[in-house]
């Protein structure tokens, strides 16, 4: 059977790009070491299987040398000490999926005569964080008084998601690539990203992160939308201004806005808080419906905790919440919410497909659906009829 001539450098680049060890790949493809030595090559059928295994388009294997692969969005992540190398295929594929969805939805809204969203890019990173945060809370109707609908901070996340979507944010939350549970997203690599656009601003939140982390990430990415600067982030509630390099002004600003969105400092300063940090932390979490991690961050901002004391308290609280999450049961948070794909987006894709304005194949691809049966089930769930 005819063999395909593939550059050994491209083969190794493809393996490393996918994050697969040499031994693991050899278990699947026994002749892989020989291919690297130029002793023959894969058959076309083997190459197709290899491409699927390494999550790489087939045509990439025919390149004469490995390409310089760039992230498709600005990279705002704090890199020091994280050990990032080449971006994972999971991150790149997730961004590409969201870019396709955002582009489609933008064209759909523009074609329907939808108005521009005035809040997109309405501020700059030179504006006071409290002012920007106030605008976000106003647009989303997220003022502290309205949070009483949520019994706790987990329910507040649901409310936060719903209000962001109602304001016009195309919001996707997922912990895997598409529906592939074997391709998990790594919160240490990235926690979220934003695509700024006046018609269809998109925010993606890494659903593999803790629920507490997702609340902060959502607020952080909204800050990116408000200043019109999309990009990839890995910021968390324990990231303080002194942790960031001097060239990370945008991330420091978005962190400050996120903290202010969740717990406005003016209201915090007017509260009578216990001198006991644990009691104060619990009070803030209860009043503002935020996680105890965010509450600790604001106690640090308030001057109630030193840098070292904050880090120690934060790490201990994070461990406690992780253990609590492992012990709890209650199903898949996002499967029951249908949060992986924004319902406004999904409804638009399904309705235009039923009307014949979007090809069924494109609709399946945009929604990560396999066949007509799952398409009909999704349409029924969303209440979309022809």
UniProtKB/TrEMBL annotation:
Xref: Pfam families: Peptidase_M78 (PF06114)
Gene3D superfamilies registered for this protein in UniProt: 1.10.10.2910
InterPro entries recorded: IrrE_HExxH, Rad_response_metalloprotease
Domain IrrE N-terminal-like: 166-300
The protein's name: IrrE N-terminal-like domain-containing protein
Species per Swiss-Prot/TrEMBL record: Pseudoponticoccus marisrubri
């Amino acid at each position: 059977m005819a063999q395909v001539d593939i550059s050994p450098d491209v083969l190794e680049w493809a393996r490393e790009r996918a994050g697969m060890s040499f031994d693991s790949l050899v278990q699947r493809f026994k002749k892989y070491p020989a291919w690297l030595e130029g002793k023959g090559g894969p058959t076309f059928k083997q190459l197709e299987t290899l491409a699927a295994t390494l999550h790489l388009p087939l045509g990439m294997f025919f390149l004469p040398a490995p390409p310089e692969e760039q992230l498709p969005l600005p990279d705002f992540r704090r890199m020091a000490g994280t050990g990032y190398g080449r971006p994972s295929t999971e991150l790149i594929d997730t961004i590409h999926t969201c870019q396709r969805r955002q582009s489609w939805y933008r064209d759909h809204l523009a074609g329907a005569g939808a108005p521009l969203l005035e809040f997109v890019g309405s501020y700059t990173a030179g504006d006071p964080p409290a002012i920007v945060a106030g605008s976000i809370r106003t647009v989303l109707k997220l003022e502290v008084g309205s949070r009483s609908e949520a019994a706790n901070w987990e329910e507040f996340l649901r409310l936060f998601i719903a209000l962001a979507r109602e304001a016009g944010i195309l919001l996707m939350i997922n912990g895997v690539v598409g529906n592939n549970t074997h391709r998990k997203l790594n919160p240490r690599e990235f926690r979220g990203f934003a695509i700024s656009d006046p018609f269809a601003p998109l925010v993606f939140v890494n659903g593999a992160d803790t629920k507490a982390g997702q609340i902060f990430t959502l607020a952080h990415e909204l800050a990116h939308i408000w200043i019109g600067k999309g990009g990839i982030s890995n910021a968390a509630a324990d990231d303080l201004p002194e942790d960031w390099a001097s060239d990370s002004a945008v991330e420091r600003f978005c962190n400050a806005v996120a903290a202010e969105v969740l717990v406005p400092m003016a209201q915090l300063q007017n509260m009578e808080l216990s001198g006991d940090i644990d009691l104060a932390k619990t009070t803030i979490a209860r009043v503002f419906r935020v996680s105890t991690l965010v509450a600790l961050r604001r106690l640090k901002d308030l001057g109630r905790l030193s840098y070292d004391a904050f880090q120690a308290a934060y790490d201990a609280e994070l461990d406690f919440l992780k253990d609590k999450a492992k012990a709890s049961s209650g199903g898949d948070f996002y499967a029951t919410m249908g949060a992986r794909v924004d319902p406004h987006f999904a409804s638009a894709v399904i309705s235009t497909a039923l009307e014949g304005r979007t090809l069924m194949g494109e609709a399946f691809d945009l929604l990560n659906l396999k066949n007509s049966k799952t398409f009909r089930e999704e349409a029924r769930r969303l209440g979309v009829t022809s």
